[in-house]
């Protein structure tokens, strides 16, 4: 497989490791970008972007980044904090009055961002098309009762995070959450990143498909067992209500919507550029970045059924947990996306890392492909 792009010669073994991914016949397309101290040292891509394996992955190919989107939403919210428009510890209901229903009057924006609010799923099954109806989803969440006492534990809000945080953005910033994120983050940094994709961009979006036969690790198997055998479990509802969540990735209406938990579109360059912008202070004041990257929740995740550790809208490194380490410094923070894409920063060495793939693996947190590349990067330094 021919690897395209640029690499500083110090990182030749990283380029080789990236190329080796394609010795797996199921690997379709991928890209890798690394910035150190704001300088791009690696910007590579290879493979195919389309469904039939005929269209090469290009320099400007973009794809659905799934949960890699969440930190972008969190940064937009933290910018509002810096502007004095949002108080992390005020009731959400101060900005969104209907949200106070069903015992949620004291839930705070901080709890939404840290996955401690008790709202990772909706109990009552919704029709598939509800996924694309912002009003229906936010109304359902506003009347939902928390699954546990807010603040007493944490459970990953895989998709509900987008409506919860997105509705706060919409009400305070007065525009769609995707528009807010793009105006505040992508445009100023010149990132090819979109939450709510224009139809004119569709032709450069990579088609995403699952790898077959890989059962993943114990955590992935545990979650899958739950979803197969317990349809009403919170973990199942988190990923399958509305039932269209897991099957919509390649659909036009999914690309068009502004769902800042899961449907950002961009590439490895956009992810690395975002984390570089966090490290050099262009996106957040130090005070807000410290809040974002400070531990807010750690331990057994009620949704993912594995250990997670969260700041505000970002996942913090767990060096001793095999499926939850980024593979670089202990202070690393960022976010994996379903199936393998990841963006993160290692602040100790000013590394900003983006890896994207359209061959979905089954892992719940970190994908071994990205972890391996991060370890090789470490050896190059």
Automatic annotation (TrEMBL):
It holds the Pfam family Beta-lactamase. Residues 23-372 form the Beta-lactamase-related domain. InterPro entries: Beta-lactam-related (IPR001466), Beta-lactam/transpept-like (IPR012338), Beta-lactamase/esterase (IPR052907). This is Beta-lactamase family protein.
């Amino acid at each position: 497989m021919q690897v395209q792009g640029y690499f500083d010669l110090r990182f030749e073994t990283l380029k080789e490791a990236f190329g080796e991914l394609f010795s797996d016949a199921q690997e379709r397309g991928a890209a890798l970008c690394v910035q150190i101290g704001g300088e791009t040292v690696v910007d590579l891509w290879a493979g195919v972007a389309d469904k039939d394996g005929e269209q090469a992955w290009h320099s400007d190919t973009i794809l659905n980044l799934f949960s890699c989107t969440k930190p972008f939403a969190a940064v937009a919210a933290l910018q509002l904090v810096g502007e004095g428009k949002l108080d992390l510890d005020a009731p959400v209901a101060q900005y969104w009055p209907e949200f106070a229903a069903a015992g949620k009057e004291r839930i705070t924006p901080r709890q939404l961002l840290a996955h401690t609010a008790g709202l990772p799923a909706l109990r009552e099954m919704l029709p598939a098309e509800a996924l694309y109806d912002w009003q229906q989803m936010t109304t359902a969440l506003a009347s939902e009762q928390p699954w546990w006492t807010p603040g007493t534990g944490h459970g990953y809000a895989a998709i509900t995070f987008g409506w919860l945080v997105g509705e706060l953005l919409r009400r305070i910033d007065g525009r769609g959450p995707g528009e807010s994120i793009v105006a505040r983050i992508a445009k100023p940094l010149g990132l090819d990143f979109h939450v709510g994709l224009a139809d004119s961009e569709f032709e450069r979006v990579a088609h995403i498909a699952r790898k077959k036969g890989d059962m993943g690790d114990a955590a992935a198997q545990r979650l899958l067992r739950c979803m197969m055998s317990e349809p009403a479990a919170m973990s199942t509802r988190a990923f399958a209500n509305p039932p269209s969540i897991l099957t919509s990735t390649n659909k036009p209406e999914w690309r068009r919507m502004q769902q800042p938990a899961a449907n950002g579109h961009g590439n490895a360059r956009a992810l690395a550029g975002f984390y570089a912008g966090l490290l050099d202070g262009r996106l957040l004041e130090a005070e807000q970045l410290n809040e974002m990257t400070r531990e807010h929740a750690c331990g057994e995740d009620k949704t993912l059924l594995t250990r997670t550790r969260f700041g505000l809208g970002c996942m913090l490194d767990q060096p001793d947990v095999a499926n939850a380490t980024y593979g670089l410094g202990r202070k690393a923070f960022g976010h994996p996306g379903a199936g393998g894409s990841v963006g993160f920063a290692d602040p100790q060495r000013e590394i900003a890392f983006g890896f994207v793939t359209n061959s979905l693996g089954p892992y719940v947190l970190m994908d071994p492909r990205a972890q391996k590349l991060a370890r090789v990067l470490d050896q190059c330094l």
